[in-house]
Amino acid sequence: MTGTFVGMPVFPEAAREALADSQLRHNLAHATSTIRAKRAKVVAEVPDWEELRLAGAAVKERALLDLETQLVRLEETLTANGATVHWARDAAEANAIVAGIAKAHAATEVVKVKSMVTQEIGLNEALAEEGIAAWETDLAELIVQLGDDLPSHILVPAIHRNRAEIRDIFRSKMGAAGRPAPDDLTDEPAVLAAAAREHLREKFLRAKVGVSGANFAVAETGTLVVVESEGNGRMCLTLPDVLVSVVGIEKVVARWEDLDPMLRLLPRSSTGERMNPYTSMWSGIAPGDGPQEVHVVLLDNGRTRALADEVGRQALRCIRCSACLNVCPVYERTGGHAYGSVYPGPIGAILNPLLKGVGHDDQIDSLPYASSLCGACFEVCPVRIDIPSVLVDQRAQVVDAHRGGVPKPEAMAMKGAAYVLKRSRRLSALERLTGLGMRFARRFGPTAWTGARDLPDAPGESFRDWWQRTDGGRKDDA
């Protein structure tokens, strides 16, 4: 069982610790550069890539602007297809629904498709409290779970681990969770994958209940879609008698044909592939084929809050491709754990505050500042989420949320600057003390600013003094 992100420090503290881990930085740099190169190659093959991005953004935007209608339609079509639809306002309600379904079938374990939303709500931990083991079947998620670790990437949750570390985890932890790793296990990727396959096979064959998320939910047909690279998801979706799919309400698209741009954008942006190896679609129940009891939990958990934010609501277009993580200079140096959430990187820096609100948790309030605003994330986003603009807007919201009460040092500094800059005489007087102030800062620093930057030398002469000495610069011109 993995830990949780509860109690994580604010981003600057977590990032400082991550930066000190040279092995972590090496693992991240190698992995993200490899994924970036693959993505760039397959994107370059598409001559109308920008038009495709516009089409993908339009599909998601249309659904979000008409979300209530599309969700009602989705419920109707799912129900007509034989599925049971549940509505969950928050994580507690969603977890209770899934646990109740598992208990109704006397299930002591469930097998899971890789799912960000079930990590968001802490489903594994909630099921464990009810005596139900939730087994991750995605290879990277399995590594994280066996290592009692936390995911650090949307697409590759174990990106912070190298092959030798994974081999050690399999050797030491697999036996306690089921079939042990072979004695002669090496760190070759094919060998590690084979060990995971053997370990998971017995879980697939005995599981009564499978749990999934969904990449897309088509309102028109009542179809849920999961894309993956390994085939483990398809095993979870077809072998158990009961399937429970937890789906964020923002995953809905209106029409079947809306899947066309999405299924072309997602694989190129995420895994650097032209198409997904496995694209599974299911619409309720088919007698004699696959699960004979299907439940769909439609989850809010802050998404309505995000939808009400006129600037930030575009984050709900996100298709969880992780392209923004792979190009982000901040993520590449700190990794995902520093963000304190299952949603790391640039998208996590805006999505977490949108879902949870700002002004009540220092860790969440620190996330909009976890960016250099270089804009690389927007350039690669397949659905054109303007992450830098949202970050700037959220920084303003964080500041506004802390107005009143005891002012922070930054606010006091800004008020002091405003007082000085309102009158030229005040500014002139303070300029004469610049050198003294810088010497004081060097001696008694570092401050939060100087701890990461070199303090420049004070100029020998202020602009005002130069202006007066040269009679407005005319003496030099002569």
Automatic annotation (TrEMBL):
Q: Which residues form a coiled coil?
A: none
LUD domain residues: 73-299
**Residue ranges, annotated region (Disordered):** 451-478
Annotated 4Fe-4S ferredoxin-type domain residues: 315-385
Q: GO molecular function of the protein, one example?
A: metal ion binding
Which keywords are on file for this protein? 4Fe-4S, Electron transport, Iron, Iron-sulfur, Metal-binding, Repeat, Transport
**GO BP annotations listed:** lactate metabolic process
The cross-references to Gene3D superfamilies, in alphabetical order and at most eight, read: Alpha-helical ferredoxin (1.10.1060.10), NagB/RpiA/CoA transferase-like (3.40.50.10420)
**Which residue intervals define the domain Lactate utilization protein B C-terminal in the entry?**
394-469
Q: Where is the composition biased (Basic and acidic residues)?
A: 462-478
InterPro entries (alphabetical): 4Fe4S_Fe-S-bd, 4Fe4S_Fe_S_CS, FTHF_cligase-like_sf, Helical_ferredxn, LUD_dom, LutB/LldF, LutB_C, NagB/RpiA_transferase-like
What's the protein called, per UniProt?
L-lactate dehydrogenase complex protein LldF
Output the lineage of the source organism: Bacteria, Bacillati, Actinomycetota, Actinomycetes, Propionibacteriales
